[in-house]
């Protein structure tokens, strides 16, 4: 090389080294910047230089207060591939910030040793979903065969070991939780561990072991759980019934039947367990026996279960109905079986004239469940009898109607002249808000629910006294008695909530014409009435369900998510219509929501009506009707309060 060229090369090299040194000095200064983004950029730039002496700087940056700096430090430490930084990256894998956890996981994948893989596998069970996915990706990058399977297996083993240690060494509450978790693992070894605990002196631990055995799903535990039904501890018996329901072993049917017939606090659980058992001769025989000999509530549940299975033998029921001492048990069996016990109608109808009120109501419930029009005349006669008995009690003391607005000077919400101008402005503001909301609802085609105006200051007839007439009104609709439509329409406007509810439910059972007359009750202000009517409409098949769907656009949209549970009905109707036109197309549908209910507005002070804004019907009351369940009867309202004026 010529001397001139050599000198030029030396000068350029010296200048470049000086520039690089100056740039590095600037990066080192940026590490002390108060701004975290500048510190993060400095760490990133230093990592690109690949200087081994910068490892101590990255270690210090890994403990920075800012997560953005810690994330860059984790990436820089992984790029060094130095085995000494594995522990520090393991600490960053537990960082509170998920983005730092993910970058630390990917940094560990660059260090190809067993310790780094162990950190990734260990932390998989302790991290959230996003970090878990990154850990699996990091294991794959580290060429770990079956990365997902290995991570899940390691997590399962860690949970098992932790629960096993807790079961042996923990406090009582910890042992209870560990016993349940061991059962949920489903391992055969869990059954061997839990079986000795079902006889533990600590009842809560024994109950937890029983629940765990039920979750394990191993039928070997049935022989150990079934004798616990004879214990006197309700908690242990409840856990045993729940476990037997999950194990689905019919060898426990006899013991469950005995519990259901003892009329204790766990009898209803035993009924539910029997109803969930696989259908067989033993299960059906047990349910039929309970429908005859159990308490009323359990008998109705057992009978309704057997109603869907074809019914029970009618000879024992006929024998019970023929003896006055056992007629109640026969009636409750018929009420549960419903149409499946239709041949027993001729034996039930004479009981409608019984002098025993409770027996008469039980017979009426049986007639309602059967729903045979042949019972119409007998139900009409009972209606006239109940109406005549209530007529003296419901006479108005004051024949003239009550005023629906306050007289001047008596409205508590009206501003007083010359007093409290601030309150007057507040009342005026709320009036404007209410009027705007009402106008918005009218523009959207929605119906504003107006509270019913009270027709009496005080009703001395207790709701329980009205229940017999309410039951007759429901029966009129169920048996489709002649003239029932006019009678039920008359009672649909009754001021009494039990009678009004029963009349609307009876109308819903009268077919399309009755459904059309009853659906207006969905805009009542009483939430319990709305829910009971919605269930009754949904049980009437296509006509009732179509009525509910047609009402949805008129409901308030403030709880629109709850109406999605009726979306399957809407989609089904659309598909049927398209099939009728000759071409079915697929469409996407929405998900199911949760019903929502809210109490109706309260009363004014001193028993006077309180003027307030009208409520709006929540869509959840109609949406809850998508799946029938529970007792369809609407219980009478306690107390005799009045409703607010609109």
From TrEMBL:
Single GO term (MF): oxidoreductase activity
A UniProt-annotated Pfam family: HEAT_2
UniProt cross-references to InterPro entries, sorted A to Z: ARM-like, ARM-type_fold, PBS_lyase_HEAT
Region (Disordered): 580-646
Biased segments, Basic residues type: 580-589
Domain of life: Bacteria
SMART domains linked to this entry: EZ_HEAT (SM00567)
Gly residues composition bias: residue spans: 637-646
The protein, known as: HEAT repeat domain-containing protein
């Amino acid at each position: 090389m010529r001397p001139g060229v050599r000198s030029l090369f030396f000068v350029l090299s010296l200048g470049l080294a000086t520039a690089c040194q100056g740039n590095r000095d600037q990066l080192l200064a940026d590490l002390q910047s108060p701004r975290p983004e500048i510190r993060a950029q400095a760490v990133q730039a230093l990592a690109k230089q690949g200087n081994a002496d910068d490892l101590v700087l990255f270690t210090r940056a890994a403990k920075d207060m800012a997560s953005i700096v810690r994330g860059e430090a984790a990436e820089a430490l992984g790029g060094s591939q130095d085995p000494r930084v594995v522990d520090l990256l393991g600490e960053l894998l537990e960082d509170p910030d998920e983005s730092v956890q993910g970058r630390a996981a990917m940094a560990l994948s660059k260090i190809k040793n067993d310790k780094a893989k162990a950190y990734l596998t260990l932390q998989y069970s302790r991290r959230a979903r996003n970090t878990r996915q990154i850990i699996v990706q990091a294991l794959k990058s580290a060429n770990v065969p079956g990365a997902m399977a290995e991570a899940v297996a390691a997590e399962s083993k860690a949970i098992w070991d932790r629960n096993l240690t807790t079961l042996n060494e923990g406090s009582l509450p910890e042992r209870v939780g560990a016993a349940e978790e061991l059962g949920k693992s489903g391992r055969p070894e869990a059954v061997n561990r839990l079986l000795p605990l079902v006889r533990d002196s600590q009842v809560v631990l024994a109950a937890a072991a029983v629940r765990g055995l039920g979750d394990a799903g191993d039928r070997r535990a049935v022989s150990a759980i079934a004798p616990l039904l004879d214990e006197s501890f309700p908690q242990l018996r409840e856990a045993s019934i729940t476990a037997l329901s999950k194990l689905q072993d019919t060898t426990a049917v006899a013991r469950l039947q005995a519990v259901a017939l003892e009329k204790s606090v766990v009898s209803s659980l035993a009924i539910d367990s029997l109803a969930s058992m696989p259908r067989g001769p033993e299960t059906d025989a047990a349910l039929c026996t309970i429908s005859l000999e159990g308490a009323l509530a359990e008998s109705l549940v057992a009978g309704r279960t057997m109603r869907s299975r074809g019914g029970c033998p009618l000879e024992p029921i006929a024998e019970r109905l023929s003896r006055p001492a056992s007629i109640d048990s026969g009636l409750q069996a018929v009420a549960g079986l419903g149409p499946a016990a239709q041949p027993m109608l001729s034996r039930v109808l004479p009981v409608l004239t019984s002098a025993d009120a409770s027996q008469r109501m039980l017979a009426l419930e049986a007639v309602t469940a059967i729903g045979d029009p042949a019972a119409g005349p007998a139900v009409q006669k009972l209606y006239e009898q109940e109406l005549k008995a209530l007529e003296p009690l419901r006479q108005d003391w004051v024949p003239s109607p009550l005023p629906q607005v306050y007289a001047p000077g008596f409205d508590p919400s009206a501003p007083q002249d010359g007093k409290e101008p601030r309150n007057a402005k507040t009342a005026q503001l709320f009036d404007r808000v209410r009027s705007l909301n009402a106008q918005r609802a009218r523009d959207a085609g929605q119906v504003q629910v107006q509270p019913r105006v009270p027709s009496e200051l005080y009703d001395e007839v207790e709701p329980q006294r009205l229940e017999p007439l309410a039951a007759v009104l429901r029966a009129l609709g169920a048996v489709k008695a002649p003239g029932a439509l006019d009678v039920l329409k008359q009672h649909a406007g009754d001021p009494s909530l039990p009678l009004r509810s029963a009349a609307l439910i009876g109308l819903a059972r009268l077919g399309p014409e009755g459904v059309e007359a009853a659906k207006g009750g969905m805009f009542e202000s009483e939430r319990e009435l709305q829910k009971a009517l919605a269930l009754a409409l949904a049980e009437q098949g296509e006509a009732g369900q179509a009525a509910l769907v047609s009402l949805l656009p008129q409901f308030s949209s403030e709880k629109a998510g709850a109406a999605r549970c009726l979306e399957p009905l809407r989609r089904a109707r659309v598909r049927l219509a398209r099939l009728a036109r000759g071409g079915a197309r697929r469409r996407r549908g929405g998900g199911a929501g949760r019903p929502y209910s809210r109490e109706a507005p309260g009363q004014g002070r001193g028993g006077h009506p309180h003027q307030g804004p009208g409520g709006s019907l929540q869509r959840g009351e109609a949406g809850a009707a998508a799946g029938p369940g529970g007792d369809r009867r609407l219980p009478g309202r306690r107390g005799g309060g009045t409703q607010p004026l609109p």
